[in-house]
From TrEMBL:
Keywords: Antiviral defense, Cytokine, Secreted, Signal
A Pfam short name: IL28A
InterPro entries in alphabetical order: IFN-lambda_sf, INF_lambda
Family membership: Belongs to the lambda interferon family.
One example of a Gene Ontology biological process annotation: innate immune response
GO cellular component: extracellular space
Signal peptide residue numbers: 1-25
Coiled coil (residue ranges): none
Cellular location(s): Secreted
Protein name: IFNL3 protein
Principal subcellular localisation of the protein: secreted
Sample GO molecular function, one term: cytokine activity
Length: 200
């Protein structure tokens, strides 16, 4: 199956940001997303029980298969210090978009390989969230608070980490990191971005 176009565009953007090539710049500060034109992220402050159940089923199924493998993963892609509240408000959707892009890429590959039916609903939900997030970023323009600047500090470190992960981590370790990060992505990172500057 071909990579989802939205995922490909996002991964390309991450590569540009990380390597410093091209003229890409971060988005303008995003405040209360429900009030921003073209944004509809407030709906994602909490997902429906049915959607969460689909993610839980996928994660449980993965854990059952994991016990049959002998993966020895030394590095944690999403450490305990991964907390979007540490970023500025305008940086959070950039980080979440990168997190979602990698998650979609990994889960898409897993669906192609063996878990298509179980991952269908989670992938549908994540693609919808990713699409809405991109609409919000686009709706507020393409210039960061400091025009022409590239992401620095913690945001740059996180983007670089996500960009390099597929090259540095074994496929099994990458799948494990993404699957065990799913609920933090959905209940913490997504909720934080959907809350705008109310996430403190």
């Amino acid at each position: 199956r071909n990579t989802d176009p939205a995922v490909a565009r996002s991964l390309a953007l991450i590569a540009v940001v990380v390597t410093g090539t091209g003229a890409a710049a971060g988005p303008q500060p995003l405040r209360h997303f429900p009030d921003a034109g073209g944004c509809n992220l407030a709906q994602f402050k909490s997902l429906s029980p049915q959607e969460l159940q689909a993610f839980k089923k996928a994660k449980d199924t993965f854990e059952e298969s994991l016990s049959l493998k002998a993966w020895t993963c030394r590095l944690r892609l999403f450490p305990r210090t991964w907390d979007l509240q540490q970023l500025q408000v305008w940086e959070r959707p950039v980080a979440l978009e990168a997190e979602l892009a990698l998650t979609l890429k990994v889960l898409g590959s897993m669906a192609d390989a063996s878990q298509g039916d179980i991952l269908d609903q989670p992938l549908h939900t994540l693609r919808h969230i990713h699409s809405e997030l991109q609409a919000c970023v686009s709706a507020r323009g393409t210039q960061a608070p400091n025009a022409g600047s590239r992401p620095r500090g913690r945001l740059h470190h996180w983007l670089h980490r996500l960009h390099e992960a597929p090259k540095k981590e074994a496929p099994g370790c990458l799948e494990t990191s993404v699957m065990f990060n799913l609920f933090r992505l959905l209940t913490r990172d997504l909720k934080c971005v959907a809350s705008g500057d109310l996430c403190v």
